[in-house]
UniProtKB/TrEMBL annotation:
Superkingdom per UniProt: Bacteria
Similarity annotation: Belongs to the Orn/Lys/Arg decarboxylase class-II family. LysA subfamily.
HAMAP family, alphabetized: LysA
Keyword Lyase in annotation: yes
Protein name: Diaminopimelate decarboxylase
Residue ranges of every copy of the Orn/DAP/Arg decarboxylase 2 N-terminal domain listed in the record: 64-317
Transmembrane regions: none
Organism (species): Kitasatospora cystarginea
Biochemical pathway: Amino-acid biosynthesis; L-lysine biosynthesis via DAP pathway; L-lysine from DL-2,6-diaminopimelate: step 1/1
Quaternary assembly: Homodimer.
Gene name as annotated: lysA_2
EC number(s) from the headed UniProt entry: 4.1.1.20
Pfam families to which the protein is assigned, alphabetical: Orn_Arg_deC_N
Function: Specifically catalyzes the decarboxylation of meso-diaminopimelate (meso-DAP) to L-lysine.
Amino acid sequence: MTQAQVDPAARTARRRSPHPGLPLGSPWPASARPGAGGELLVGGVGLAEAADRFGTPLYVLDEEEVRRRARAYRTALPQAQVLYAAKAFLCSAMADWVSEEGLGLDVCSAGELRLAAATGFPPQRILLHGNAKSPEELRLARRMRVGRIVIDGLAEIPRLAALAIADTPQQVLVRVLPDIAAGHHSAVRTGVAGQRFGFRIDGGDGAEAVDRVLAQPSLRLTGLHCHLGSQITEVEPYLAALDRLVGLLARIRDRHGAELPELDLGGGHGVRYRPGDRELDLADFAARTTRHLAARCAEHGLSVPRLIVEPGRAIAAPAAVALYRVLSVKHGTDGRTFAAVDGGMSDNPRPALYGSPYAVRLVGRTSEAPPAVIDVVGRHCEAGDVLVRAADLPADLRPGDLLAVPAAGAYQLSMASGYNLVGRPAVAAVSGGRARLLIRRETVGDFQAREVGR
Ligand SMILES: Cc1ncc(COP(=O)(O)O)c(C=O)c1O
Ligand SMILES: N[C@@H](CCCC[NH3+])C(=O)O
């Protein structure tokens, strides 16, 4: 990394970095190391080398980073059940890694469920949720004997109850809306009043859902579920959610004499996208939620339920780096410089959807050129297709250069589209100095293969 490319906030941290050349608190995987000639190694593999081998755009997924993060959750929350939220990014290897690290899986569609099942993921460790589950999805989940299903609508209760399997009641949780605003953008704040997710705690329909579930002998209510939002960097919203949920647990105990053994706080744990960004402190989250839950339960005379958490982004995002080749560099009339790359909103819709900020750096060559403010834009015909706005890049950036964007592992590929028939990028896993292709690049043949008439 040249001096010109270093974010000023990161410059101070860099002095104390355990990885020479990369700042502490950086959004790069922990394995990232600078190599010769501007190369950047992740998982012991040069990113420029990987781009040459597999082509671009390319997503490079650091297996050890995924495993390390999964293990960190188990260590921080040894009593809790940790479920990886598949929606952040799922492929068979990812399912294997989180399963091998002892995590469960949170799925929200038949597709995620089928993919996980095909890898041999233990169904007992799978939880299905979703605000619009089809009868077929409920049937599939029941047939696969998933461990838990989160009820998010009154109609699901009789539907699920009718899918009884003799002597094995389905364990369910009831999702409630805690009315707490948290998350990086209004579009992802699912736990705030007025949202369609879960039952209202105060409006009475939460209590009604609980009554109806308890009346079904083929369902076993194990707890309450909530999910506040995504990219939350403070612990306080989770503590507020615990207050509301424990209050409801106490009311359920008073009304039905039943103490529910589980409490699912959902996911939403925030990560760094740029050097110096805040992230949710996992140790702090674990210590304070555990303490708070115990204190609130003691106040209500309840035994302490087991916590469930569903981190997606915090496990997947920091594990991947997106690589793009610069195709053209243009100077706009208003003094702006644009570097157009071979990917864009079809592989990462987050900047266009939420204005999400990212870091970016040149890899594969060094530059002594002064820094310039450059918008890294995508290849799609939309003014909003800007991947990194006002990036600090060398002024001599030119076509053929390789750009690397860290924290690319969550909600990019899983929300990628077929726009302009560009095709979704390939994914390569890196580990111990070796790279292997996990997902090949999508081709026009894949699009044509779905056409059955003309
Ligand atoms: C119910 C539920 N659980 C878990 C997650 C995972 O969220 P994150 O990736 O922000 O941890 C989501 C998505 O935000 C969700 O809707
Ligand atoms: N897609 C969102 C996160 C949504 C989480 C789904 N509950 C993002 O990229 O920030």
